[in-house]
From TrEMBL:
Keywords: Membrane, Transmembrane, Transmembrane helix. This is EamA family transporter. It comes from Streptomyces macrosporus. InterPro entries: EamA_dom (IPR000620), EmrE-like (IPR037185). Gene3D superfamilies: 1.10.3730.20. The keyword Transmembrane helix applies. The chain crosses the membrane at residues 28-54, 60-81, 88-107, 143-165, 171-194, 214-234, 240-259, 266-285. Belongs to the EamA transporter family. It holds the Pfam family EamA. The keyword Chloroplast does not apply. Residues 2-129, 145-284 form the EamA domain.
């Protein structure tokens, strides 16, 4: 379980880093739609090859719900980032972990005392790793509402995808259905944006810029899919309360990737957050 949950953090962290880089030159909605379309195509081939259609059942509605909520949460997050300040929005969005942890507790999971301490320490570390803005410009109420909505949405997706299947082939089908819904919602949002004067293609390079970025877009989409899959496996092995916290360490990975690739200097609070997150992870793993 621990290995799957930590793999989820690594994959989500790298996917977020790659997506962040791409949105610097390609509209965010286009990044979401194209990356998820590629992921849906790959998953569709896997579903056909494995005969996963035979696993269709009532649990697929969890995947549908996750697929509808996920893009909406992402749009709220992007909108909140636009309103800023980013130093408040990003750490607050990391509180998404509260939702699956709450679900696990509601279902009767009871971590021992060191694990409770690990949950608290790791969650604090994740928030601090986002580099919270402790002073400066005030946060708009709308930005705060959008940020909290995105956190609830991201957390709900984690809880829903964990319930979407009971077998490996069923997981392939659930992830495929989730991606189809992601593409449908994201595509509709992109259409509305274009109708309102927004851009679907980057101002520099246009279609060629998107085509040249297809390998990176494929990586973002497939890493996100793989992360959802490893999290579902971790949550199935359980307990969910621990799997969710370990899987939510991805902001640390994103910050470290920015440090390694872009040479961005970590703030002191981010370095402290990374240390706390790792300490919390060790407490959870030792429980």
């Amino acid at each position: 379980m621990i290995a799957f949950a930590l793999a989820t953090s690594l994959l989500w962290g790298l996917a977020d880093f790659g997506g962040g880089l791409l949105t610097r030159r390609i509209p965010a909605l286009t990044v979401v739609v194209v990356s998820q379309t590629i992921a849906a195509a790959v998953l569709g081939a896997i579903v056909v090859a494995t005969g996963a259609w035979s696993e269709a059942g009532e649990r697929l509605w969890f995947a549908v719900a996750a697929g509808l909520i996920g893009p909406a949460a992402m749009l709220c997050f992007y909108r909140a980032l636009a309103l800023g300040p980013m130093g408040v929005v990003s750490p607050l969005a990391a509180l998404a972990v509260v939702v699956p942890v709450g679900v696990g507790l509601a279902l009767g999971e009871r971590p021992d005392l060191p694990q409770y301490a690990g949950i608290a320490v790791a969650t604090a570390g994740v928030v601090l790793a986002g580099g919270p803005q402790l002073k400066g410009a005030p946060v708009q109420r709308r930005a705060l509402v959008l940020t909290l909505a995105s956190a609830v949405g991201f957390g709900a997706v984690m809880a829903l995808i964990a319930e979407a299947s009971t077998t490996l082939t069923g997981l392939y089908l659930a992830l495929f259905v989730q991606r189809l819904c992601n593409v449908a919602v994201g595509g509709a949002a992109l259409y509305v944006s274009v109708r309102r004067g927004g851009a679907a293609l980057p101002p520099e390079g246009g279609r060629k810029a998107v085509v040249s970025s297809l390998p990176a877009l494929a990586f973002v989409g497939l890493a996100d899919v793989a992360a959802n899959g490893t999290y579902a496996l971790a949550a199935r092995i359980g307990p969910v309360t621990i799997a969710a916290v370990l899987a939510s360490l991805y902001p640390v990975i994103t910050a470290l990737a920015a440090r390694a690739v872009l040479r961005e200097r970590l703030l002191a609070v981010q370095a402290a957050g990374a240390g706390l997150a790792m300490a919390g992870g060790l407490l959870l793993a030792s429980g």
